[in-house]
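# nightly structure sweep
# worker-07 picked up a monomer target from the shared queue
# config: single-sequence mode, recycle default, output format = structure tokens
# input follows
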Amino acid sequence: MDCGIHISKTDTCWILGFNGDVRLSLCTTLDDLIEGIFDQIPSQLMVDLSTAQNIDSTCLGLLAKLAMRYQVETQRLPQLLCPDGDLSDLIESLGLETLFESVDALPVIDAQALPLKTCDAQSASPLVLQAHETLAELNQANQAQFQGLISALKSQS
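# output follows
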């Protein structure tokens, strides 16, 4: 299965769908998408992980950023569909379950794949740092888990 991001939207509802192995290579595209959402904030925001096989910590940190900002802007939680037990356990272990309303189904809206922007490790470094700082803010376990990476990334900049 190819990795990628697709978006489905109406005037009031946006669904961000993730396919395959969601990793660093998608972080620039995901960050740009997050910024675009707040140009025209939908009344419903949903994240669909039903076709995701794995998600790395950078993309999870960006999803945490999305959820926290959406909650500040709308006073609502975005919805999350994550039927995969392993991914659900990962999300829960990092404390992200508190940032989303878990749902069992999402509306069906025509989806369009987003073109992926080139993302290499050096240009992604600021996003990787931001994503892990966001995860570290969620709880002390994340802070301990990601402190070494955060320190290393800060020393490189």
